[in-house]
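Morning run. Coffee first, then this:
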Amino acid sequence: MAQQPEDAQRDAAIKALTESLAIARTESELFQKLWTEAQLRAQTLGANLTDADANASQRQLVESLRSLYLAEVERQRLIEELNRLLTAVQTGKNVTGEVERAKALLAAEKPVSQTASKSSLETARVLEFNPKLRLVVMDVGSLHGARVGMPFIVLRGDRVIAWARVVEVRQKICGALIEKTEGNVTVKAGDAASVTKS
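And here it is:
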């Protein structure tokens, strides 16, 4: 009689171990499949995940993340402006001001030749600043002549507050990493920026 509870416990343990083994095999197959897919994707993008030179792969990943970040910043900016406009229309407060802001935002989305934009490499503006990434988004892009590696200074009034280098360029915006700041000053949206000699 004492043998039955031991047999039941042993059978339960065997069943639990069998289930765990099945789960582990399934997870292993899933991870192997995901790894194979990741390798194929990386090879499609020109990276080799098994390459001894991990720095090249890391740089490629960082550049991809920067591109994603810049696109997300632009998307968030558009969503915020739409929300402001909707709120203004619903409450009836400052509708004219919000419509003007929306028009200005839409004008920024048109090709540079269609806008009366005064932005240039010498008179750029900071649109966004991410302190965690130390990344500024400026209102000049490839249509203005911005290029990767281009150095910029960030100004508040006539005072230089930061030095940045462009790491990503789109048609109408670019992203630059802050290399140095003056004291404890934090870059803000609206600060001026200008291309400089290294």
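The CA atoms of residues 85 and 91 lie 10 Å apart. Good start to the day.
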